[in-house]
Specification:
Chain lengths: 194, 194
DNA sequence: CTATGTTTTCAGAAATTTCTGAAATTACGG
DNA sequence: CCGTAATTTCAGAAATTTCTGAAAACATAG
């Protein structure tokens, strides 16, 4: 491995981290390297810096492309493929969440919907279905929230995250201002309706 | 594998899903089984239903306990250990996020802080550090948000998630109401400050 | 303390994943 | 077309992870 020490530390860490996610070491290292690199790199650059085989790099890049995590670029007068990560780190977050949702949540939701259609044949199955219903509803709530905030531009998203639960305060304030005093319908019920 | 069909479908799916996370098939299956079960199960129950070895179940349960994902229980007059997942699915989500943060985000933050302290020895290292700074700040924002909403009780959390980006509307309304007209300091700046 | 039921540990077998080198394919310039 | 550079594919080697059975450790009742 042929890298400035500071870069190497990070690359090695991401390689290890990769295993905790479903991703292998080399893929993690390639990604870390591209993320830190100012210039796009070609496959041979990566081979030299990481000290792994050319074919391994080829497969790793293919996987990263399948995840939409790297962009393929070309330099004029050079027919090699160059790879880079988006400059905007928020774009990376969005892609990551999107792809993980596609691979993990969506298939699970499909399965849950299927199983929830079936008629339970016993008390045990009935209870199992109830649990699956809970999970289904939870995922629906979370993906709904995600679909919603995902549409925000980054500036507003950051604003929202910065506020955190302070939003709560503002909601309470809104209530005090706008709920007709003595009205039966509180905001809490509002939230449950939807 | 000795399970009602409906349960089996789910258990198998979670087994496969486990690999996408850093978790192995058996651990995923054990967890799915406990999640769906009305009654707590002991190790031998799990062996029978999943058709895996006793030692494998022992190791799987140990791992799930390390993740705080199962509770150990006892029945009067029975000295075997019984295992169950929390009834409250939101508790499960909280534990999962907490544990993943502990295992993935926290060590990465430590590493980033260390590397960001060092003096860059080249333009390449300087750029790499800038990128790491971006990642560091991103994680800080996200974990800050998390620490904040994590404190909310479930009802309020659900309320917040249900609103999604509609919170935005309320924020805008708040602005219109409370920003002194003609003031130099907009809400946007506010958000950036912290 | 002993007998028995229960859980844990762990060395090696089995399965799976990762990685490589060689060959095949693709893509382009001339 | 042809030749060359670049990339991909893929069979098998290497490494890693998972799983098992046997033994050890632990715990409780008697």
């Amino acid at each position: 491995m042929n890298l400035p020490p500071l870069v190497q530390t990070f690359v090695l860490h991401f390689g290890e981290m990769g295993s905790r996610w479903g991703i292998n070491r080399t893929v993690g290292q390639i990604y870390a390297l591209l993320f830190l690199s100012k210039e796009p790199l070609n496959a041979e650059d990566i081979v030299e810096r990481l000290g792994v085989s050319r074919s391994n790099v080829s497969m790793g890049l293919k996987e990263l492309q399948a995840w939409n995590l790297v962009r393929l670029q070309h330099k004029p007068g050079d027919r090699r493929d160059y790879f880079a990560t988006p400059d905007d780190i928020w774009q990376i977050v969005r892609t990551l969440v999107e792809e993980r949702k596609k691979r993990e949540i969506d298939p699970t939701m499909t399965l849950l919907r299927e199983v929830l259609m079936q008629e339970p044949a016993s008390a045990e199955e009935r209870h199992a279905q109830e649990r699956m219903r809970e999970m289904h509803d939870l995922f629906e709530l979370l993906t709904g929230w995600y679909a919603d905030v995902q549409r925000l531009d980054t500036e507003r998203l950051v604003q929202l995250l910065t506020l955190g639960s302070k939003v709560q305060k503002i909601l309470e304030m809104k209530d005090r201002l706008f709920v007709v005093p003595g009205s039966k319908k509180s905001r809490r019920d509002d939230a449950k309706d939807r």
